[in-house]
Amino acid sequence: MTEAGSVEGAEALLRDLGAGALAHPGGTLLAHVRRVRSRLAAWEARPALQTAGLCHAFYGTDGFPDGLLPLERRSELARVIGREAEAIVYLYASCDRGATYPGLAGPAPCFHDRFSGVQWTPAPRTLRDFADLTAANELDLAAHDPEFRDRCGPDLLALFTRLRPLLSRAAWEDCRKILPTAA
After folding, report:
1. For residues 30 and 15, what is the distance between their CA atoms, to the nearest angstrom?
2. Residues in contact with 85: Cβ distance below 8 Å, sequence separation at least 6, in sequence order
3. Helices (H) and strands (E) in the chain, counts
């Protein structure tokens, strides 16, 4: 499977599952996930992470509970986008943000899976993928929804400041450009 084929397949699946009709800040869910993928591409993320950015909402998230596919259909998405990209999608969707975010960049990061209840320590690359995907998603929301940016921007900047060691340089630069600093 080529990366272009997985993106084409993911786009088709997104359209088939109604992402183009689902309202989301900045337009539709389809428009949002395309922008997240584009932001990751601009940051020169590897192809699997870019594809995960396009598909990050397939199983819903802690902040967006309405997924497009139930977890029982993970293998279907993996066939379309590849196992590596699907694993990143699952990781992102499974994050219990309230339990995970506080210590994620600490000396003993602990990831809390909201689906299984499992707690585990991700590998450094997995942590970096998660941090950049989180930043790409939240920065898109902040860039397209001024109310969201005003309400959540300071907390997001605090989060990404803590996660800075995990973020790519380009992700951190975008955080500094898009998110408001404290008055």
Report:
1. 8
2. 6, 48, 49, 51, 52, 55
3. 9, 4
Please answer whether residues 25 and 146 qualify as being in contact, where contact means their C-beta atoms are separated by less than 8 angstroms: no
CA 70, 32, 101, 132 torsion: positive or negative? positive
Q: Encode pLDDT of 143-163 as tens digits.
A: 999 999 999 999 999 999 999
82-124: per-residue pLDDT in tens?
999 999 999 999 999 999 999 998 899 999 999 999 999 999 9
Which one, of 156, 131, 181, lies nearest residue 148 by Cα?
A: 156
Q: What is the total residue count of the chain?
A: 183
Helix (H) or strand (E) holding 23: strand 23-24
Residue 149, H or E segment = helix 146-162
E strand segments, 34-183: 111-112, 119-120
